[in-house]
C-alpha cells in the first residue's frame, strides 16, 4: 500500500532523534502516529512508555489525539476499555501511550519514557525540550512547519550526529484531494514566503508582517469582555472562536476554539461550555443560515459589518490598540506571526493582506468592526 514519504522516514530511521520538517498537509503527523501504533503491535507487552506531546492540550486533542484514535479505529484496534480519558492514557498491546501538554510542568518532569514524539516542536522552548529529553531513554521524534527562519531546533538538533533530518512537502502525501493541492499551489501566486514555508517545506524568510507589535499575556482581571468573534469553517478551514477583551487602549485575545469538521450543532454544544452565558457573538455575515441556526440554539449572535474596505479597516482598528494574546492561544499566535500583506511580482508590498493564516484574526476583526467602530454610509470611524 502506498504511504506518505514521512511514513517511510519514520519507520526506517534508527537515529536517536528524528526531525521531520515539512510543508502543510505533507502527512507528517499521521505517518508518525501510524508508525508508533505499528511498533506497539510488533512489540506486544514490551512495557514501553511512549509520550506524545504538544505545547497545549486543546491543540493536542484537536489534532494528534484525534488522528491517533482514527488510526486505531481504521485497524479495529480501538478499545474504550484501554482508553483512560481522564489521565489521557491509552494501553496499546501492553504499551502505555500518554498524551500530555508542555504547560503541565509536573507531567513534563514526571516519569521516564522510552519514546518521545513532539508535534509542532517549534512551539516549545529550548528548556521545554531539555526537560523532556532528560527523561527519554530510546528515541525522540519531532515534526514542525518551518515558519521561523531562526530557531533553537536548527542550532541544537539538526547539527547533532545522532539525528536524522527529513524534509517533505504536500507532494509526498499521495492521499491529498485535488482541491487541497490546488489551494496550496495557489500560494505561488499570492505570497512567495508562504509558498516557501507551507508549499515547499523550507525555512521561512524574515519579512514584515502585518502585526509586528504584540505580546503574550494573560487577561487582566479588570479587562472587560467586548464580544466573542466567530469565523466559520468546516472541511479545510477551521471554525475559529476568540474572546476579545478591552482595558483602556489594550485588546486581549483568548483563543477558545480552532477545529475543522464541526457542524453547527457541534459548535453550539461546545460554545455552551466555552463562553459566558449571554455573551454576544459576532460572526462572519457570509453565512446567515448558520447565524440563524445558532440564534435558535439560544445564543446572542449578530452578523459582522462588512463594507468595501472592511478587511483593511478591521486591521487598522486592531493596530490602533496594544495587542495581547494568551499563551495558550497557539493558533492565534501562529497567525499573528505569519499574517502578511500581499506583494507584487517585484516583491513590492500591496495594501491587501494574503487570504491565509487569518481564521482567528478574522474572528477578532469582526468584533473590532462591530463593537469598536461606527459605520456611516459604508465608511468606518474609530470609536
CATH structural class of the largest domain: Alpha Beta
Strand order of the largest sheet: 3-4-5-2-6-7-1-8
Instruction: Kindly give the count of domains.
Output: 2
Biggest β-sheet description: 8 strands, mixed
Structural class per helix/strand content?
Answer: alpha/beta
Number of helices: 14
Write up this protein.
With 383 residues, the protein is of the alpha/beta class. The protein has two domains: 5-199, Rossmann fold, CATH 3.40.50.300; 214-382, Nucleotidyltransferase, domain 5. It is 34% helix and 27% strand. It has helices spanning 5-12, 28-42, 57-74, 105-108, 126-133, 152-157, 178-185, 187-190, 192-199, 264-274, 288-296, 310-319, 330-338, 359-371; strands at residues 17-22, 49-54, 83-84, 89-92, 95-101, 113-118, 136-144, 163-168, 214-216, 224-231, 239-247, 250-259, 281-283, 301-303, 322-325, 341-343, 349-353, 373-376, 379-382. α1 (5-12) crosses α2 and α2 packs across α3. The chain starts with a helix and ends with a strand. 38% of the residues are buried.
Amino acid at each position: 500500500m502506498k504511504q506518505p514519504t514521512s511514513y517511510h522516514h519514520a519507520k526506517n530511521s534508527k537515529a536517536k532523534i528524528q526531525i521531520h520538517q515539512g510543508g502543510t498537509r505533507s502527512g507528517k503527523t499521521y505517518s508518525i502516529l501510524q508508525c508508533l501504533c505499528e511498533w506497539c503491535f510488533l512489540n506486544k507487552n514490551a512495557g514501553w512508555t511512549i509520550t506524545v506531546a504538544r505545547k497545549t492540550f486543546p491543540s493536542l486533542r484537536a489534532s494528534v489525539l484525534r488522528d491517533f484514535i482514527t488510526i486505531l479505529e481504521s485497524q479495529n484496534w480501538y478499545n474504550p476499555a484501554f482508553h483512560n480519558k481522564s489521565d489521557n492514557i491509552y494501553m496499546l498491546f501492553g504499551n502505555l501511550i500518554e498524551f500530555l501538554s508542555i504547560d503541565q510542568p509536573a507531567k513534563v518532569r514526571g516519569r521516564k519514557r522510552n519514546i518521545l514524539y513532539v508535534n509542532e516542536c517549534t512551539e516549545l522552548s529550548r528548556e521545554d525540550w531539555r526537560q523532556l529529553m532528560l527523561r527519554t531513554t530510546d528515541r525522540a521524534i519531532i515534526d514542525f512547519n518551518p515558519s521561523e527562519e531562526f530557531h533553537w531546533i536548527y542550532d541544537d538538533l539538526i547539527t547533532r550526529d545522532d539525528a536524522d533530518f527529513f524534509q517533505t512537502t504536500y507532494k509526498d502525501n499521495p492521499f491529498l484531494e485535488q482541491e487541497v493541492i490546488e489551494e496550496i499551489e495557489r500560494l505561488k501566486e499570492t505570497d512567495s514566503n508562504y509558498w516557501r514555508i507551507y508549499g515547499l517545506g523550507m525555512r521561512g524568510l524574515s519579512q514584515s508582517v502585518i502585526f509586528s507589535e504584540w505580546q503574550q499575556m494573560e487577561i487582566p482581571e479588570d479587562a472587560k469582555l467586548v464580544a466573542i468573534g466567530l469565523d466559520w469553517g468546516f472541511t479545510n478551514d477551521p471554525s475559529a472562536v476568540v474572546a476579545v477583551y478591552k482595558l483602556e487602549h489594550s485588546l486581549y485575545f483568548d483563543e477558545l476554539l480552532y477545529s475543522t469538521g464541526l457542524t453547527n450543532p457541534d459548535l453550539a454544544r461546545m460554545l455552551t461550555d466555552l463562553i459566558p452565558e449571554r455573551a454576544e457573538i459576532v460572526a462572519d455575515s457570509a453565512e446567515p443560515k448558520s447565524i440563524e441556526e445558532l440564534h435558535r440554539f439560544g445564543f446572542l449572535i449578530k452578523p459582522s459589518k462588512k463594507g468595501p474596505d472592511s478587511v483593511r479597516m478591521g486591521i487598522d482598528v486592531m493596530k490602533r490598540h496594544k495587542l495581547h494574546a494568551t499563551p495558550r492561544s497557539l493558533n492565534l499566535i501562529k497567525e499573528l506571526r505569519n499574517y502578511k500583506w500581499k506583494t507584487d511580482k517585484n516583491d513590492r508590498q500591496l495594501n491587501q493582506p494574503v487570504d491565509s493564516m487569518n481564521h482567528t484574526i478574522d474572528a477578532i476583526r469582526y468584533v473590532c468592526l462591530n463593537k469598536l467602530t461606527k459605520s456611516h454610509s459604508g465608511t468606518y470611524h474609530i470609536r
